[in-house]
Specification:
Elements lengths: L2 H18 L3 E5 L3 E3 L2 E3 L2 E8 L2 E6 L2 E6 L1 E4 L8 E5 L2 E6 L5 E4 L7
Length: 107
């Protein structure tokens, strides 16, 4: 690779990393759990930091193990996927990113 191509690749990778780290606002209309962690209804900011989803509400921070997945198409809106009040996934509006909470990671 040429020096320019290498620099461009590094810049694109950095930009992608910054985009994945961007915080997203969401509102929980009811309490949900991720493993043994309870997220009470309210307004949150969530962002991925490494292998954790970091939720912030009223200056209180909660870190939950998670992975960042990709969808084929960008999500039109932010969608919370849950089953029996157990949060499984957050699809992030305007991106192809989804935060995935596995049962094993949430313990």
């Amino acid at each position: 690779m040429t020096k320019f191509t290498t620099q461009l690749f590094c810049l694109a990778t950095l930009a992608l990393g910054i985009a994945n780290a961007a915080p997203y606002d969401l509102t929980l209309i009811e309490n949900v759990s991720v493993g043994k962690t309870l997220l009470k209804a309210g307004d949150y900011t969530v962002e991925m930091k490494g292998d954790k989803a970091v939720f912030t509400c009223n200056k209180k921070t909660i870190e939950i193990p998670a992975t960042l997945g990709k969808n084929d198409q960008p999500f039109a809106s932010t969608i919370l996927v849950s089953q029996h009040a157990q949060l499984q996934e957050i699809d992030l509006a305007g991106t192809q990113d989804k935060i995935i909470f596995s049962a094993a990671a949430a313990r």
